[in-house]
Every structure is written in C-alpha cells, then in structure tokens.
Amino acid sequence: MTQPCWILPSLAAFLFFGTLTTESAEPKRHDSILFAEPDGVELLIDLRLPREVESPPLVMFIHGGGWQNGDRSRCRLAWLVKHGYAVASVEYRLSGEALFPAQIHDCKGALRWLRAHADNYGYDAGKVVVAGTSAGGHLAALMGTSGGVKDLEGATAGNVEQSSRVQGVIDYYGPSDFVKRSENQPSKTDDPEGGVYRLLGGAVKENLVAAKTASPTTYLSKDDPPFLIFHGDGDKVVYVGQSELLAERLEAEGLEVHLEIVKGAGHGWKHNATEEKLVLDFLERVFSKTASNEEPTNAAEAAARKAAAEAETDAEYQALVTTLSPEEQAWEKTLQSELGSFYLPIHKREKVAGKSNAWDFVRDDPELPRVLLIGDSISRAYTQTVRKELAGKANVHRAPANCGPTATGLRKLDVWLGNGSWDVIHFNFGIHDRATPLDEYRDRLGQLVARLKATGATVVWASSTPIPDLPEKKWTAASIVERNAVAVELMQENDVAVNDLFSAITPHLAEFQNPDDCHYAAPGNQFLGERVAKFLGAHLNQKP
Fold first, then answer.
1. How far apart are CA 396 and CA 380, in angstroms?
2. Low-confidence residues of the chain: pLDDT under 70
3. Omega before 56 cis (within 30°)?
4. What is the dihedral of CA 391, 368, 501, 434, to 10 degrees?
5. What's the pTM value of the predicted model, to 2 decimals?
C-alpha cells in the first residue's frame, strides 16, 4: 500500500478537507487505523469526525485508480465532515496484490470493522452510505447491489456478525457491467496493461463468469438501497453509458436512483456547488429514512423499511395531487388505478421529486394534432424522447399503463383511448405475447386493429423489438420474429403503416441492449424514440 499522506498535519488537512476556514473546523482525526492484514498486506483507514456532533452518520469512501493504483488519501467527499458527517476513507488490496474478488471482500470487511468499532469512535453504525470514484465507484455500487451475497462477503477483518449492507450509494463514474463494457470499449477490458484485465486476471471475453461476478448489475434486487450516480458525458475512460445502464436497471427494479450527467466533464471534475447540494440532499433523504443505530440485516427488514419509505412518499404524493388542477387530478386518479404495483410507486417517487416521466399530464395545444402511444415498457422508455422530438408539432400522450399483452389490450383499450379524439395512434403488442399461440395472437391483434381504426385516427403499428434467448426465462428470440411476421401480414391486410423498430434496432443490440434483457440503456431508448418521432412526423397530417 502507498504510504499515507497524514505525516504533516497542515498537509493532511489540505488533502483530506480542501480549504479549512477556522481552527474550530478541525475535525477529530484518527489516522492510519489498521483494520486488516490479508496475505500480509496492511489495509488502513483514515477516519474524520465532526466535533460537537453526537453519533454522526458515516460515509465510507473507496478510492479509485483502476484497481491498481491509489490509496485512502484520495478522498473526494472529505468535505462532508464540515456538514456533520463522519468520513472513513478505506483501502483495499490492489490488483497487483490480489485478483478479484479480494477488492470487494476488503471493502465489505472494512465496513464490518467500522460497524464493530462504532462505539469506540462515536459514529452511528446504523447509518452508512458508501461512496467511491471510478474503480472505487464500481466497488461502492457492487457493495450496494450485492448485499447478502455470501460469495462476495469474504473474511477480511472478521467481524462476521456485522452486516455489510449499506443505506445508500454514491457512485462517481464507475463501471457497472464489464461484459457490456467489453462490447463497446474493448480497449479498456482486454488490454493486458489495463485495469480490468489485471483485476480479473485476463480479458473479459475469456473470463465471462468472473466479469459477471464483478459487475454490480448482476446482483440487482428490489431491496437494494438508493443510488446517487455522477458521470461526465465526455468521459473517455469509462463511457457514460455504464452509469446510464446502471441507473436504468435500478429504476426497472423500482429503486430510488438519481443519475447526474455532468455536461462537458471527462473522467472527473472539480468539486462544485451543484454536486455538493445533490450529495447533501441525498444523504439527508437517505438518513432521515433510517432509524438511528438500527441497520437492516436481512431482506425482510429491508423490505419493511422500503414499505415505510413508500408510505411516506405516498403521503407526499397525495398532498401534491391536491394542489393540481382538476384535469391533472383526474389523470393522476387514472394512473393510480392503472399503473399497478410496480410502476405506480416509481411514478409517485418521481412526481414527489419533481422529475418528468412518460406518464406526465399533457396539456394539449389545440392547434396541434394529438398522438397516442400504446405499448409496453420498451415504449414507455422512449416516450419522453418522442415528446421532445415532436415538441411544437404534436401533443404526445401515453396510455396510462405498461400495456402488456393483447388480452390486456382488449380489456383496457377504452380506458387508454379516453374521451378525446386522436389524430395518430402508434401501438405495439408482442413481447408480452411471446407465449401466446400465434392464431390467438393474430385474432386478438385483429380485434385491436379494428377498434383502433374505428376511432378515425391514423393507425401505426410498431414491430416488437428483439429479445435474447434465455432458457431460464423461457425466452426465445424466434418468438418475436414469428409474431412480427404475423403482425406485419395483418397490418398489410388492414392498410396500417408499419414502423419497423425490430429492423432498426437489431444492428445496434450489442451497443444499446442491456445484457440478458429485452430493455435498453438510455442511448438505445433515445435511438428508438428518435426513430418513432421521425416516423410519426411523416404521418401527422395524413388522414386514414
């Protein structure tokens, strides 16, 4: 390990804190704490606590350096001590000292050690957020998603009676999926001199099991903690798509996540006021929902806390709805009855947080045509891009649901159509019908086409996008090809235009589609949305 940078007090204060304004701002300092010595490698912690704050929450920071360089002195969040938080900057074995999973074993061991010694130092062991930059961001994210995964727990520092689960994650530009990264950034995963190669002991393409084991996206589950993710859109070291993928996958699990894309930034940037506010707001929100000195140790406890947090969010949402116009309240009431147990909590959280989503209320410009999008989660994910692209050209609405299979469409179509008239209806059913017998699929789809055409709108069919072969989920890529063929034939018989999203996205699957999933990272959703908007733009003034 590199020697610590705490030899001179004045230098230490500068490195760990940045600028100190007064002598009274000096924190309680505990330097070079030895917490473990696996394979003879000393692992140290530098701990800072605010004065005159009793039992502060703890932020555990993990340094970057490509898993092969760096030490605990490189702490981006040391400034948090001035805001009443304890900060522990920890070390882990570098790739030249041990291959993965040693690094995550050491980080989890550091947290267990910190919890075991909380009473000695005076911070709250039940309120812990883990954070990191680059390689440290990867390890922080992995700690967040792999809570309870025994193979990643390890034995570093012992204290096995302590939990390594965290209450939140702050991830700065860390990679999240090594397999996906190897597809669009192979120079960073397959170069023998590169960090990932040295971490895994070989190229990703030759070590797929290890690559998946080391990827935070592998372990996502509904009891994962909230995430705050930062990434520069000009990052050439770790592409921003890695954070977009993680954020999208977290959101798909119904989890709280905020991705802050820093415009014009590369792999790192100078600390700024916007970042500071986001971090402080995140910590306040996370810790306010965590009971003091009570850390969830199993999925049942985590689920109970999540339910309590959702109840709090629901109360805030209901209060917000009362401030809306009658038309907006009516729309929210429809969403409450139609979105279901998965999407409704996501919608509520986003409304409370002031975030836009696919189900935003649309106040029509009477001079513009009305467009309705009907479809599943693929359609939901590109809805906002379509709105953006057609702004000033059309009022783009979305059906108040993840529309599911054709059987659901036949039951719910009148609700989705609402009371107004439509100029263009863009619709799709297919992925949720992958197990529906082809003759039943064709029959139901035919009924839907007839009802949609009866509205007087121009009707546009979108072909279903590809799914991978996944035997464990009983998914077959061929099922979508077969249903698209049936649908296209039916649309031709009924003079319905076909927007062939399947053919458009297929050449880009390696770049855009999430691994072992039918969904897409943000660039893929944008690609599909732009394609849909362009296609609809050509049909806005056509009459059936």
1. 12
2. 1-25, 290-303, 305-306, 542-544
3. no
4. 110
5. 0.58
